[in-house]
Amino acid sequence: MSLASSHGIAAANLVSSATMAGLLRSLVQKGILEAADIREIYEIALLILEQQQGAVPGAEATFNAARSAIERKLA
Hints:
Layout: H1 3-29, H2 35-53, H3 60-74
Helix pairs in contact: 2-3
């Protein structure tokens, strides 16, 4: 993978993350979701990561980084 394509992948991931965070914040501000709902979403995300980790050999560091980021949201 070239440096340029890795920047593209990173940019796409940042766009997805920022969009999701904006969506969740907007839903809370509109009273559609509560803080407990957001916590549940992050807990489900952790469960999904755990389920998928074994299916991607050699990606342990990536999954650990993702898990750490989500766990910070739960702290």
